[in-house]
Amino acid sequence: MSLRYKVGDLEIVCISDGTLRSSLDYVIGLDRDIARRISDAPDDDVLTIPVNNFVFEREGARLLIDGGSGTKMQATLGRLPAGLSAAGYPPETITHVVLTHLHPDHADGLVDDEMNAVFPNATLLVHEAEFAFWMGEPRDGENDHVKRRRARNQADVKPYRDRIRLMRDGESFLGCSPFLAPGHTPGHTCWRIETGGPDLIAWGDVVHFATIQFPLPETAVKYDLDPDLARDTRLRLLDLIAREGLVVAGVHVSAPGIGTVVREGPGYRFVPAQNSSN
Ligand SMILES: [Zn+2]
Asked: Ligand 1 center to residue 88 CA distance, Å?
C-alpha cells in the first residue's frame, strides 16, 4: 500500500513495510491495566504496530527514509521492496537512504538474505554519532543484545561502505538536516526536511506505542537503550512539533504516519494528514 501526501511543495509517498507485533511487556512505568485500556490491547497484550517508510524526490534525487526490516525479523514485515516497486520506485532507483537509527526494523532491510545491498545505487545518510556508536568496538558492560546488534549493523552497512555519507547536527543535504534525538539509541536522529510549508520531521522512533505514548508521553519502552533520555527527548520534541505546527513522518505512528500533533489533556493527540492520492 502506498499513499501520497502534500506537505508544502513536497510530495511524500508512504510505503508500508508491514506490521510489527510488540508486547505490552516492553512498556515501562505504566500500570498494565491502563496500558491495556488506552491501547485497546487484545487478550494476549501484543499490539500490532505499523512500520512506515517514506519516499520523496528532490533535484533529481530519490530519497527513502529508513531501510525497512528485511525478511528475518517477523513474518509480517519485509514488504518495503515490493511496495516500492508497486508504487513506481523500484529499490534500484533509490539514490539515498536517510537513516534515523540502526535498529532491525530500520536497517536490516538494507540487505537481502545473501547480505547484498537491496538499494544497490543508494548512498546512506546517517548521523555521525549513530554510526560511531554501532561501528565502534564493544564497550565495557554492554549487554549481549547490543553486542549482537552491533555485529548485525556492521554487516547491514558493509555493502554500502563506499557510499556512506556521515552527517552532523545542522548540516544540510537537499534541504534535509539531521539533529540528535538520543535515548532510543545514542545517535537516534530526527531529520528536519524543508518543504516550502511547515517543516517535516522524520522522527524515527520518538514514539513506539502511539496509542500509549501520545496521550502519556512520559511512558518509556524497553526498546530504548536509555529510557530516561528517550523520555526527555520525546517530551522536548512533542512540545516543539505542537508549538511550531510541524508535520511528523513517524515510522510507528498510526499508518501511514504523516500528520500533526496537538496538545490534549496531560499529553498530545496525533492528527493524521489528509492524503492526496487519486
Ligand atoms: Zn523502530
From this structure: 25
